Amino acid sequence: MEKEKKQYTKGSKGGGDFRGNSNVKKSFEKKPFEKKRFTEKASDAGDFDGGNSDVHDEPMSGNIIIGRNAVRELLKSGASVDKILVSGREGSIVALVAEARKAGIPVVNTDQRQLDKVSGGENHQGIAAYAAEKEYCSVEDILAIAHERGEKPLVVVCDSVEDPHNLGAIIRTAECAGAHGVIIPKRRACGLTQAVAKASAGALVHMAVAKVSNIASTIDELKEAGVWCFAAEAGGDLYYETDFRCACAIVLGGEDSGVSRLVREKCDYTVSIPMYGKVNSMNVSAAAAVLICHASAMQRK
């Protein structure tokens, strides 16, 4: 891989100018990491999409809140909510949907059968909410963590990872490797469910996770902050010949779709893990372990 980017000298500290760009915004440098509720403009909120592509077939668990009164209180509490499922729009559901959209929470129009399934047969009254297992932070918070540690940022970006076990495993690897945060999209991806928390084997408690409305725009934000972005896809530079001794973000794609075309185009580089067997790709969490640990080791040389 061509080494055109400005590399860190030994002993350099994590700061605003990660890419050697004097015009980089440094607003995160002195801002301490705080857990906060993820909010967005109402115009970015999830709308009824006419389908249930965002709905995971998960049985009822502690992070699924069902019933109109229960969901209303959840919204009032200000707790992080991954998404809300509704079957029909009638009565008080209309007001709850409006409140959710105002808070930037995705609302998915589904059917009675799906709601029955996720609620475990309990009376859901046409609505259920997926409450996050922990509070989300911002991308700025993740960069601030690296700055506070005096380290080059190592960020993991998950572009549409839908399986909670994969997401949990990725978070576990990221924490073990000393990454500063994980970024996930708001829609068509797994949120921080109990299954994710369990699969992370406790790592979720220690890992900052940001939830964003648009991964492509977030790549631009990271680049503006001086972070080099590496898309993990076939046809790229061999990962062990790639120089990760910089502020970097490892971008991982969904289980079936991989890294989306737009996100891949916005990344600085594409890196690949060579396959020598008969299967043409690794599970995303296994690939994440290879790349994140390698990048972490190179940053510490």
Characterise this structure:
This protein has 301 residues and is an alpha/beta fold. It has helices at residues 68-77, 92-102, 112-118, 139-149, 164-176, 194-199, 215-224, 261-266, 284-299; strands spanning 64-66, 81-86, 107-109, 127-131, 154-158, 181-185, 209-212, 228-238, 248-252, 269-272. The chain has a 6-stranded parallel β-sheet with strand order 7-6-5-9-8-10, with helices on both faces. Strands 1-4-2-3 form a 4-stranded mixed β-sheet. The chain starts with 63 loop residues before the first strand and ends with a helix.
In short:
This protein has helices at 68-77, 92-102, 112-118, 139-149, 164-176, 194-199, 215-224, 261-266, 284-299; strands spanning 64-66, 81-86, 107-109, 127-131, 154-158, 181-185, 209-212, 228-238, 248-252, 269-272. It has 301 residues and is an alpha/beta fold.
Spatial arrangement of strands, main beta sheet: 7-6-5-9-8-10
Strand percentage, roughly? 15-25%
**Structural class by helix and strand composition:** alpha/beta
Number of helices: 9
Question: What Rg, in angstroms, do the CA atoms define?
Answer: 20 Å
Run of helices and strands = EHEHEHEHEHEHEHEEHEH
Query: Tell me about the biggest sheet?
Result: 6 strands, parallel
Cα distance spanning the termini: 19 Å
Unreliable residue runs:
1-16, 21-62
Give the overall average pLDDT: 81
Shape descriptor: elongated
Number of strands: 10
Residue share in helix: 25-40%
